[in-house]
Amino acid sequence: MTGANGMLGTDLCAVLEESHEVHGYDIDDFSIVDAKRTAAVVSEVSPSIIVHAAAFTDVDGCEDDRHKATRVNTLGTANVARAAREAGCFLVFISTDYVFDGSKGSPYKETDEPRPINHYGLTKVYGEMIIRDLAPRHLVVRTSWLFGPNGKNFVDTIIEKASKNGSVRVVDDQRGCPTYTYHLAAGLRDVIAKGLEGTVHLTNSGDATWFDLARCAIETAGIDAEITPVGTSAFPTKARRPAYTVLASDVLGKAGIEPLPPWECGLREYLIRQGLIKDEGG
Ligand SMILES: NC(=O)c1ccc[n+]([C@@H]2O[C@H](COP(=O)([O-])OP(=O)(O)OC[C@H]3O[C@@H](n4cnc5c(N)ncnc54)[C@H](OP(=O)(O)O)[C@@H]3O)[C@@H](O)[C@H]2O)c1
What we know:
- The protein has helices spanning 7-16, 35-45, 59-64, 66-87, 119-134, 154-165, 181-193, 210-220, 251-254, 263-273; strands at residues 49-52, 90-96, 138-143, 146-147, 167-171, 175-176, 179-180, 198-201, 208-209, 226-230.
- The chain has 282 residues and is an alpha/beta fold.
- It has a domain at 7-153 and 177-207 and 245-261: Rossmann fold, CATH 3.40.50.
- Helix 8 crosses helix 10.
- The longest helix is centred in the N-terminal third of the chain and has 22 residues, at 66-87.
- The radius of gyration is 18 Å and the shape is globular.
- The chain starts with 6 loop residues before the first helix and ends in a 9-residue tail after the last helix.
- The structure holds NADP nicotinamide-adenine-dinucleotide phosphate.
- Residues 2-3, 5-9, 26-27, 31-33, 53-57, 72, 76, 94, 96, 124, 143-146, 151 line the site of NADP nicotinamide-adenine-dinucleotide phosphate (NAP).
């Protein structure tokens, strides 16, 4: 696995280790930008499956340093794809809802045309194209709005701000599917076990705005804070964000795979795991 120390990678390693021998690598081991080293590690380990979760994931940072974003997310992905092809192994690529422009206004299916509006999304779309082109056996998994204990995430930021300041302003005109990394990791284990190939959307069920997610986190954690909905223009960012990237899946149902639990369940489990609320069962 690449990106093994990241927010998703850490939970995914733990989940997959229950049933597989996992070799996890991250930037401290080698950079996927180094084609020779990537090929050498893959050839040495000779895995049956590679999960490629490494990426430059700072969406605004990708605008600041477009060369790095392209090198890591597109060329790095090409290096992993070539190595997977040489080793004859199955390649799972983690992609994003930000491949879409957000103008559809109804949930995006696997067959919808990507049209990214920021550089991060563009580098991931090119990554997807390269995977399809270079890796004969692959699965592109698009997911979204991740939160988990092993990385900087929106839920932690909101809880910290609300606790410290007693009030938060949160964007209410971007809608997506918040997803708990542990639930996603279990879902990835299941789609891999089913031998799914092609492209699949995998997120917690249901959708929300950032405001909805923040309100649920603050209320569930029992924090006494005022929360105000604001428009995207209240927080100018380097990268444009798509207004609507709810992901739906035709593929999961057809493969007989259960959807992931509602995002509110993911949030509750996450807050329990972080010790912010008690586990009262049920
Ligand atoms: N976070 C989200 O909301 C979200 C949503 C949709 C899709 N995704 C996708 O899901 C995957 C996992 O995301 P995540 O949030 O878990 O990301 P993350 O926490 O940033 O983890 C990515 C890991 O990849 C490493 N990495 C960066 N450049 C590398 C390189 N050149 N060679 C090897 N490793 C490198 C990172 O190291 P450093 O931390 O040192 O850079 C980090 O440990 C990514 O492919 C991302 O595009 C994420």
